[in-house]
Design goal:
With about 550 residues, this protein is of the alpha+beta class. It folds into 3 domains: about 220 residues, no CATH class; about 90 residues, SH3 type barrels (Roll), CATH 2.30.30.60; about 80 residues, Alpha-Beta Plaits, CATH 3.30.70. The termini are far apart. About 15% of the residues are buried.
């Protein structure tokens, strides 16, 4: 019932707005009518659930929806007053709504404690509720004075100004929360609490500063990093936020007696058997640890790419990345599983109990995983190598060849990723690099000889053909190997033409230019051969005798 009445409020709000927007002339009385209808609906809903809570002993759901409608009533009232008073500062409005939300949340828990006759509920008095609501304008006034004082102090740095505004905002909210807890006797103001509060402010100050500093550096000094790795900012924020959460955990442990809460989380079991026990506490701890380590590993990979960029001017992958990533993920997974309560002694019976089908599936996964380490230590294929192997690499993109050709960008836990000339990333199982023939164009060095065939008629002068092809190749000298000159081979005599092959040595690191280079050489050579009077041979079929005709009756 509560959710249906709550949904009815949002439907009513949307319907009234749609009706008002359909009017040609919208006056102030329409706006006041809209607010009046919504407030009346919310107030009646509040009274309904107040009655339900008392008469039907619906202590939890009744208190929940009663306070939810009370919160919406205050929010609508604040928005109405801000519009009537023409309050343009949206931050103050948000602060008021946030403080009211904290108020209503505390009142909700006081309601439940009072209904269930808990010790905290015995202190439930109407004057406490009034104080909770009356404290809102005081802190809004404090925040306004803080912003006005900051405007008088000239701070040229935009980042520093933003930092102080955020700090004032968080400071006022924190002081409000402490005031609320002090009013309902949840905390005692003493020296220990003061030390913890100072530690909290210092850590919060450092946290906000780091977020703003990182954002500013990624937009200025390290802009190239944020462009190539758009996920970098999010990963840095995640690591800093997790570190901040860990610091807060130790501060709150020092300030409050949270051991009962931790013990409660440890006793809430998700899985509890004789072999395996996973509590909510161990699950949260292992997930946070795994997220932290994975983000650190990925940041190290980005840092290694940046070092490569500083040396070569390109974000080239390195073999060290694959080693760090594979061992890092393995180590993080082992530690996280042990923190969760899962060890090999638990895994082996579980795997055996999964049956033969799961065993075959795990066999493939383990095969690929071990093959990944074989690739890394064998060093026949490394990150950054140019490789070719059988397969398909994007028929949708128009690539109908039956080979995968490209650069190895990542040697992962299960797959190795190859980026093709079309920008398509192909994830190839690691076992293929161990069991199949793989062509590595950069295994010993980066020089590769490519062959470009030409069909030339019998009567063409060989010296003239060779001269034209050599001249054409020299026009693209910047792509050719420095100490190897182009060559022309008289390769074969076919049925109706002679086959010449232009042989070029190039640097395999220019692998993306190979197809383009062949195309440009063909175009230039065709123009030169045409000017020299050399035509490409074409098969001609001579038909003699009469062609049979088909008569239609």
């Amino acid at each position: 019932m509560g959710f249906s009445i709550l949904g009815g409020y949002f439907f009513l709000k949307k319907s009234v707005k749609r009706y008002i927007s359909s009017l040609e002339k919208i006056g102030k009385h329409h706006y006041f009518l809209d607010i009046f209808i919504r407030l009346l609906y919310l107030f009646l809903a509040f009274l309904l659930f107040f009655y339900v809570e008392k008469e039907f002993k619906s202590y939890i759901s009744g208190a929940l929806f009663k306070n939810a409608f009370l919160f919406l009533t205050f929010v609508e009232s604040v928005k109405f007053l801000s519009k009537v008073s023409r309050l343009k500062n949206k931050a103050i409005v948000k602060l008021i709504v946030l403080l009211i939300g904290i108020d209503i949340g505390i009142i909700f828990f006081l309601d439940i404690a009072h209904n269930l006759n808990l010790p905290l509920g015995q202190k439930y008095r109407l004057d406490i509720v009034v104080k909770l609501l009356a404290i809102v304008p005081f802190f809004v006034f404090s925040y306004t004075l803080s912003i006005k004082a900051l405007e008088l102090v000239k701070i040229e740095s935009k980042a520093a100004r933003l930092f102080f505004i955020k700090f004032i905002y968080i400071f006022d909210i924190l002081v409000a929360v402490i005031g609320y807890f002090w009013l309902i006797d949840l905390i005692q103001l003493n020296v220990k609490f003061l030390i913890g509060l100072i530690l909290f402010f210092i850590s919060t100050l450092v946290y906000i500063f780091l977020l703003i500093f990182i954002n500013e550096q990624l937009q200025t000094k390290f802009e190239v990093l944020s462009q190539h790795f758009p996920e970098l900012k999010g990963r840095l924020y995640t690591i800093i936020t997790l570190a901040y959460v860990f610091v807060l955990y130790f501060i709150f442990t020092y300030l409050f007696q949270i051991e009962p809460i931790i013990e409660t989380l440890k006793n809430i079991y998700i899985v509890k058997t004789e072999v395996l026990s996973i509590s909510l506490y161990s699950l949260i701890r292992s997930i946070l640890f795994f997220i932290l380590v994975i983000n650190l590993i990925l940041l190290i990979r980005i840092f290694l790419r940046y070092l490569s960029y500083k040396k070569t001017g390109d974000f080239e992958p390195s073999p060290v990345e694959a080693v760090i990533y594979n061992f890092g993920v393995l180590l993080a997974a082992i530690i996280s599983l042990s923190m969760l309560g899962i060890t090999w002694k638990v895994l082996l019976p579980l795997i055996g109990a999964l049956g033969i089908g799961a065993g075959f599936g795990l066999q493939s996964i383990i095969n690929n995983y071990i093959s990944g380490f074989v690739i890394i230590f064998n060093r026949k294929v490394e990150v950054g190598d140019i490789v070719e192997l059988p397969g398909y690499a994007g028929k949708f993109a128009g690539n109908n060849q039956d080979v995968i050709f490209g650069i190895v960008t990542d040697i992962g836990v299960i797959n190795t990723v190859i980026e093709t000339v079309d920008g398509v990333s192909v994830a190839v199982p690691n076992s293929r690099f161990v069991s199949e023939n793989i062509i590595n164009y950069t295994l010993s060095d980066n020089l590769v000889r490519i062959r470009i065939p030409f069909k030339i008629p019998y009567d063409a002068e060989r010296e003239k053909v060779e001269k034209i092809l050599i001249e054409t190749a020299n026009e693209f000298k910047r792509f050719l190997a420095k100490y190897y000159t182009p060559q022309v081979w008289f390769f074969d005599i076919k049925d109706y033409y002679n086959e010449y092959v232009l042989v070029l040595w190039i640097d395999a690191r220019n692998w993306k230019k190979i197809i383009w280079l062949r195309s440009e050489i063909y175009k230039k050579a065709a123009e030169k051969l045409k000017k020299a009077g050399i035509k490409f041979p074409v098969i001609t079929i001579e038909l003699r005798g009469e062609i049979p005709q088909t008569k239609v009756n």
